[in-house]
Input
Amino acid sequence: MKGAISPESEEFFKYATESDVFTVLGISVDYDVVSPQDMMEIASSPSSDYDFVMPALDGAARAVEAEDKSTTMTDADSGSVVAFSTPLIALVYTDLVDDMQAKGLVADSGGNKSLDLAKLNEMSKDGTRWRDISPDFGSPRVVDVAVPSVRESSAALQYASLIRAVGKDAGGDDAMQRLLVGQGHGETSTQGIFDAFLRLGQGEMPMVLATEAELVAELFQQSISESGTKLEEYTPLTLDPGALLTFTVIPQTEEGETFAAAVHEASLQGAAAVQGYRTEPSSVFENFATEIDYAPLDLPTQQRPTPWRDYEAILQELG
Output
């Protein structure tokens, strides 16, 4: 069978393939990594070659379901299955956090530290630079969160919707232009920009958009290997307001229904946990987090899905 998946779920499929999890379950899965816009076009095409699609955005999933013959406009598709999820986070150098907190950009939030996106927008509008926040750092860069391509990455598109919301109405488009356009980063996924963040120096990328899944997967790799970048020098920040990427399997064919039925098998949920995703049921992830001595971040308050038409407006605005 073949699926169209979001960039932020690729690591799960890689791991499940390489560790023969699919094979043990008696299924063979090929997949293409596609952008959110392409995901919508694939799902609405009657001649699609895909057995399932797996968007990461709730709003996209609801719109895709509306194209399916067994879905009404008011109810979720009975054949759709939430595979796993992960919250968006920002990852920042730890030595900047106290200064960020003193300036009101970071707050303590239920045992975690959170990044205030409204304050970030305000600082960006005022032209605040990193050296204004942390004189010892001295970077002339205007404060921002490094993001991958909004056109390619579901996470970046979700982040753009948060920035648009805190920017309020007409000012939201201005906020997106300031905080998202012209960063010069060529990565197409949060995994790519996360890897670049670990590789580059603080001056190049002080703070980056990531997912909790990428952080946890890296912690796991470091727990079983002496190689790699140690993460003690970085601090994860939840976002305020926050967002959750929810990966929904939406079957397009009978083979796609077979995959949807297998998603909650213990072995597949175990593979998801190893790659840092919040599992269904949550206990699989929680047990894995305990094994690697990781304290899960607070999940964002559940909100109504952003309609796909709003994401389309964002893509049009950002060009």
The beta strands are 2-5, 30-33, 52-54, 81-93, 106-109, 112-116, 207-211, 234-240, 244-251.
